[in-house]
Amino acid sequence: MEILASNNQSFYEQLIRIVLQSIAQAHTNDLKSIFKFLSYILLIEDSLQIKRLQLAFEGINESGSGDNCQHFTGLYSLIRTSIESEQRRAYQTVKFLINLSNRNSSCKDYFSSTAMQWEFAINWLKQQMQTSWQWSPAQNVSNEDTDTRSFQRTRSAQFTLEQAQSLLQQTTTSNNDTSTNELMELNDTQSQSSSQSTLVGID
Q: How do the domains of the chain map onto residue ranges?
C-alpha cells in the first residue's frame, strides 16, 4: 500500500475518496479499523504527505463543468455534521486527528496550521465532557464499540480532550510568538527609518 500511494497522486486521491465515503457511511462500530487503514496512507512520509492530509481533512470544492467539477467533503466537515446526528462518529474522527498529530511531526504541523478549522470540535468535546451524564469507565463502555449513537463520557475521551487542548495551546503560543517577533521587527524597521530621517535633517 505504501509503495502504491507514495508519490502517486492519482492513486491516493481515488483511495482517499473511497475511504472517506466508508467513514461517512459505515456503522460507528466499524470506524476504528477504517481509520487505522487511513492512517497508513496519511502517515507515508513523502513530498505529497501534506497534500494527502489536505485532501482527507479539507476535501475538495472546485467549481467547473462536467468532469472538471470536483467536490467532496473532508473530515472537518464530517465532524461538524456528525455533531448534530452521530456524536460517536464525530468523536472518533477527532480522536483520529489527535492520534495522527501525536505520531508524526508533519501531521502535527498541518493540524497546527489549520487549527481554526477544527477548534470548534474541541469546544464541543469539552462541553460534552462537562454536561454528558454518562460516566462509565467501570462498565467498559467505549465510544468505538457500543450500539448507541450518543457520546459516552469516558476516560479515553477525557485523555483525547486533554491532548487536543494541549495541541491548541501550542498552536496559540506559536502564533503569539510569531506575532511578537513580527511586531518587534516592524518596530526596529520604523526606528531605523526614524533615525535615518533625523540624520538627513541634521545634514
A: 2-192
Q: What is the dihedral of CA 20, 72, 100, 1, to 10 degrees?
A: 60
pLDDT top residue among 174 and 15: 15
Per-residue confidence (pLDDT) for residue 139, from 0 to 100: 57
- Is the model's pTM score more than 0.85? no
Helix axes 115-131, 75-85, angle to 10 degrees: 20
Q: At 11, list the grid cell.
A: 492513486
- Which band of pLDDT confidence, cut at 50, 70 and 90, is reported for residue 65? very low
Of the two residues 194 and 2, the one the predictor is more confident about is 2
3-state secondary structure the chain: CHHHHCCCHHHHHHHHHHHHHHHHHCCHHHHHHHHHHHHHHHCCCCCCHHHHHHHHHHCEEECCCHHHCEEECCHHHHHHHHHHHCHHHHHHHHHHHHHHHHHCHHHHHHHHHCHHHHHHHHHHHHHHHHHCCCECHHHCCCCCCCCCCCCCECHHHHHHHHHHHHHHHHHHHHHHHHHHHHHHHHHHHHHHHHHHHHHHHHC
Residue the block writes with cell 496550521: 113
